[in-house]
Design goal:
Chain lengths: 410, 348, 292
């Protein structure tokens, strides 16, 4: 009898303890989707390590190095990052194959920073139907912030269209009677930037723009386009170009003695990898807009954030070229990813990761310009949206004016 | 310049392959077929997708093989036909709401016409000149697809997203009786592609065995002798271009459906070069080698990247050199060696 | 009219690039009887060697000569190591070999020197030439260098024993062997010379297009087109072809309304094909008669 009673009490108390344990544990319960465990978080990434866009492969290498550093510092909430990066040679069909391999075979938690508009367009539908986050894609195409139709896809850098709008705003204020000549790359990047500019100029676009020329990346030089643009008699020139062509353009414009008000797209405004090869003497007075600090610009030598960046490069990626804009880019992107995973805590479900990515508040990666902050919400899938105008003088960019947000309507 | 004309006895660019040697024996064919049917039952969807791509590229490689191995004409412009097929299918599906299966013959016919027309001026060109002309076509294609005038249909630089088809309900229900689960889109598409591929393969084999096939090969081996024998060289050469382009177009259409996306960047000269490499690795003129060549262009880059990310291009190049050093005639050579070995074993 | 003259002058300036590359294409064609797809990459790699030497403090002309020597030796080494074993393999297998070589060189250059663009110096300066802002002294210098190369090549192939032997070895290997020409080494020598000419082209082109691993990608297409247009057997034709392509392309881009600008390369290529259909051996090439 007694023993039986004792037994019952014991049973009851174990039940209570067990209940307490479960209910108490519920607060700190760990929730996982595929790709996350107590010790590891698997991130998948796709980069053009080979092929025509291999220049960008360095982004993947820097991100890998960044996660290595995070892992050596103890990981994120005790979990190590396992960064799996595959090559798609900038070919959309290959990107689909690699994305499926990452999700279905390597079983990653999410796709982080796949590069290029074509590749991301190709995998967007797949990622969204599988409900796998496609986070911080490495392209500024405006369509990657469409939270309504693609709630699992988010961009990172400022959309090219907002950059175009910012130039338009500046131009309308400074030179409303300008005659504009435009050179753009015939792909999504060039066309998006062009659209932003035209939208920004509004009704005046038709009367202000006197000449437009597009070029293909396969062209060896764009010199002859520039000759043609000059003959249009324009006094404002937009170079919506990627680094190699930006440098050619700056050099050629100077050579033929054309002195327009010169706007250079942010992609091709790197001090070390564009302006220096093009010749600093040719680049004086050029206008551009930026959201990140330039790795080769001496004005940031004593900047706290950039000191961390340089220290990281020295230790984890000594072979990387700090003048390369892609290096700065990879660092900032990886840092944002780490922030999201930190915020997600022990709830590493895909849904929560996406929710955290959409609730970044005033986050400032080391490499962004002072005043530029990352903010996202359930209805704002454009993390970096602000830019600041700048003018090149001597050997540095001089920032001026306020940090502007180039609002792209939805 | 001098008026002296050089007289050259040119070695034929393509070795003569007897028509029987262009195909496989019945036993081997059945074994390969059984493998192609059974493997997808045991692997993940992702692998099934890769296998689908394997079949699609094999079709495209085979199409080039009919042109080069069959009629002796060389093309670096197959990516253009592949692109036209893919876009035709994508536009019909997305703008015309036409069933995916019905778009395939349309793509095939459109590309046949395109190839036939392209073959006309190409008649006057041979060797490196034809290579340049086809190369020009391949570089021009992405630019044409981006062209502003076509943008309402092609989606311009942004491309078009294509909806992936579900398995038809009767297939799906039969399948679920046997396996207890619904048939995945990937699996359905694989078997669909397999059926189309087998159909085209059998038709191609018969074509090469037919009168036209003999005409192709006569032209390949010696154009002047062929015309002396009464073969209409111009007709058969353009026909070979048309057939090759048509098959490539079907492959492109299947590719668009499998990848669910078409964009100018998918169909650059790199694709044409890959298809060419597939043909060389598979063995020029040996149709079954196409699938080996296709496997090479899909899987070897993955292997290369696994060895070194920074040098994946170099590793790929080195692997390619290894293959062409060991077997300069591609998989065909392996097959011949294997056949001889089996023959020896049987005798002893 | 001013636009027309400007576009023609700009076309000549760009055409100089194509002409320079086309010479290298003709050189290899004379030696091995087909086109080498890796030629642009070989030129790019040589140019990087020159750049590296200058970074280490070697003066321009010193680096120039060292690079020539390196390229010549490198071309021969590539032939001996990689393509001699393929001599008996089918032609298409050789073409696959060129593609493999392309991938290898491009990938190594990217790893060693990364993909950021580098400035490459010019010995001719870049001020306006003869008062015209459209052609710089560098471009004029490049045209001069191309002309000198052209004359040298012409005499080499026409009047030197070794040049004649090389042509014979490429065009009729069997007969050449019968008259005692070491055809195998002729091919190697051809590779060496083509690599050396390619390196000159690379060093002339780099100041205009900037040095980076993919710099020759577009140039090579135009180089092929120019060589084929002019006639693959004629160095003179190749140079003329280069200038014609440059001018063609600009005029198509300027005067064909609507699509001209977006499609200037395809239009230029289509024109070349039209020329080939009319004159299958190119403008200045000798027609080849086949013996049946």
């Amino acid at each position: 009898m007694l023993s039986r009673q004792k037994l019952r009490i014991a049973a009851f108390s174990t039940a209570v303890i067990a209940f307490a344990a479960t209910s108490g544990g519920a607060l700190a319960q760990k929730k996982y989707d595929t790709g996350a465990t107590d010790t590891e978080i698997k991130l998948g990434n796709i980069m053009p390590y080979s092929g025509p866009a291999s220049a960008y492969g360095v982004i993947g290498k820097i991100e890998d190095a960044y996660f290595k550093m995070i892992n050596e510092q103890g990981g994120i909430n005790g979990r190590k990052i396992n960064f799996i990066s595959y090559d798609d040679s900038y070919s959309p069909p290959k990107a689909v194959e690699q994305a499926r391999k990452l999700v279905e075979s390597d079983e990653v938690l999410l796709l982080f920073g796949p590069l290029g508009t074509p590749s991301n367009s190709a995998i967007q539908k797949y990622a969204n139907s599988k409900k796998v986050p496609q986070l911080f894609v490495a392209t500024g195409a405006t369509k990657f912030g469409d939270y309504k139709d693609f709630p699992w896809t988010m961009g990172w850098q400022p959309p090219y269209q907002s950059e175009g709008r910012i130039y338009a705003k500046y131009l309308l204020k400074e030179k409303p009677d300008a005659k504009v000549a435009i050179m753009y790359q015939n792909d999504d990047f060039g066309k998006d930037l062009l659209k932003g500019l035209k939208d920004g100029l509004g009704d005046k676009a038709a009367s202000m723009i006197v000449a437009e020329e597009s070029y293909e990346v396969s062209e060896p030089t764009i010199d002859s386009h520039i000759v043609k643009l000059k003959s249009s008699g324009a006094d404002v020139y937009f170079s919506m170009t990627t680094p190699k062509f930006s440098a050619q353009s700056i050099k050629k414009v100077a050579e033929i003695g054309w002195k327009p008000m010169y706007f250079q797209s942010n992609v091709g405004a790197s001090v070390g990898s564009v302006l220096q090869p093009a010749g600093f003497e040719n680049a004086q007075g050029i206008l551009s807009a930026a959201y990140a600090k330039d790795g080769a610009d001496s004005q940031w030598d004593n900047d706290e954030g950039m000191k961390k960046f340089y220290a990281f490069l020295a230790k984890y990626a000594p072979e990387a070229n700090k003048a390369d804009g892609s290096v700065v880019f990879g660092y900032g992107q990886a840092q944002t990813m780490v922030q999201v995973l930190k915020q997600a805590g022990d709830d590493l479900t895909r849904e929560n990761v996406m929710k955290q990515a959409a609730s970044l508040k005033d986050f400032t990666p080391d490499t962004l310009l002072p005043g530029v902050k990352i903010n996202t919400s359930a209805t704002d899938f454009y993390p970096v949206e602000q830019l600041q105008m700048m003018r090149f003088k001597d050997q540095k960019w001089e920032l001026f004016g306020p940090v502007i947000s180039g609002d792209v309507g939805g | 310049m001098s008026t002296v004309q050089e007289v050259v006895t040119e070695a034929p660019a393509i070795e003569a392959v007897p028509k029987k040697a262009m195909t496989l024996g019945y036993g081997t064919s059945l074994a390969v077929l059984a493998l192609l049917i059974l493997v997808p039952l045991f692997v993940k969807n992702f692998i099934i997708f890769q296998l689908t791509m394997l079949l699609i590229y094999a079709l495209a490689v085979m199409a080039l093989n009919i042109l080069t191995g069959g009629s002796g004409q060389f093309s670096l412009g197959q990516s253009a036909f592949y692109a036209v097929g893919a876009y035709t299918s994508a536009i019909l599906m997305e703008h015309g709401n036409i069933n995916y299966a019905l778009t395939l013959p349309v793509s095939g016919i459109v590309c046949f016409g395109f190839g036939y027309l392209f073959g006309k001026p190409a008649l006057r060109l041979s060797g490196v000149y034809l290579a340049l002309a086809t190369f020009a076509l391949a570089t021009a294609m992405p630019q044409l697809l981006k062209l502003g005038v076509f943008e309402p249909w092609t989606g311009g630089v942004q491309g078009l997203v294509v909806t992936k088809p579900d398995a038809p309900s009767f297939v799906s229900s039969i399948w679920s009786v046997f396996s207890g689960r619904a048939m995945s889109q990937d699996m359905w598409l694989y078997y669909f592609t397999l059926a189309v591929s087998i159909g085209i393969y059998v038709a191609s084999v018969n074509l090469l065995r037919s009168r036209s096939g003999r005409a192709f090969m006569a032209i390949r081996d010696n154009e002047i002798a062929a015309s002396a024998m009464g073969v209409d060289v111009a007709l058969y050469k353009t026909l070979a271009f048309g057939v090759s382009a048509g098959i490539t177009g079907v492959a492109g259409a299947l590719g668009a459906i499998a990848v669910q996306f078409v964009a100018p960047d998918s169909y650059t000269i790199t694709l044409a070069i890959s298809l060419f490499l597939g043909m060389v690795v598979g063995g020029v003129g040996w149709l079954p080698g196409s699938i080996v060549g296709s496997a090479f262009i899909i899987f070897v880059p993955n292997i290369a990247e696994g060895i070194s990310k920074g040098l994946s291009g170099a590793v790929f190049g080195i692997l390619l050199f290894v293959v062409i050093f060991l077997v300069p005639h591609g998989a065909r050579q392996v097959a011949v060696i294997a056949q001889q070995l089996i023959g020896k074993l049987r005798k002893s | 009219m001013e636009l027309f003259t400007n576009q023609v002058l700009a076309g000549i300036a760009t055409g100089a690039i194509y002409a320079c590359m086309a010479l290298a294409v003709v050189m290899i064609y004379q030696a091995i009887d087909h086109l080498n797809f890796a030629q642009g990459e070989m030129a790019m790699f040589s140019t990087f060697i020159a750049w590296q030497l200058m970074q280490w403090g070697v003066p321009y002309w010193g680096a120039f000569l060292l690079t020539l020597a390196f390229s010549f030796a490198g071309g021969i080494a590539i032939e001996r190591l990689l393509f001699k074993p393929l001599a008996k393999a089918p032609i298409l297998t050789n073409v696959a070999g060129f593609i493999a070589l392309y991938a290898i060189i491009n990938s190594f250059a990217g790893l060693i020197w990364d993909f950021t663009i580098k400035q490459f110096p010019t010995p001719f300066g870049s001020s306006p030439f003869l008062g015209s802002q459209l052609i710089s002294t560098h471009q004029a210098g490049m045209i001069g260098v191309t002309m000198i190369l052209l004359v040298l090549l012409f005499f080499f192939f026409r009047f030197t024993r070794i040049g004649l032997a090389m042509r014979a070895a490429a065009a009729m290997p069997e007969s050449a062997r019968l008259v005692g020409i070491n055809t195998s080494w002729m091919i190697a020598l051809g590779w060496g010379m083509a690599a050396a000419i390619g390196s000159i082209a690379g060093m002339m082109i780099a100041p205009v297009v900037f040095l980076e691993p993919n710099m020759m990608l577009g140039v090579l297409i135009y180089g092929f087109a120019a060589a084929v247009l002019g006639g693959l057997t004629s160095p003179f034709g190749a140079v003329v072809g280069g200038f014609l392509v440059g001018i063609f392309e600009n005029l198509a881009g300027t005067y064909i309304p609507g699509i001209g600008n977006e499609l200037k390369l395809p239009i230029a290529l289509a024109l070349i094909i039209v020329v080939l259909v009319v004159k299958p051996a190119g403008l200045f090439g000798r027609p080849i008669v086949k013996r049946v």
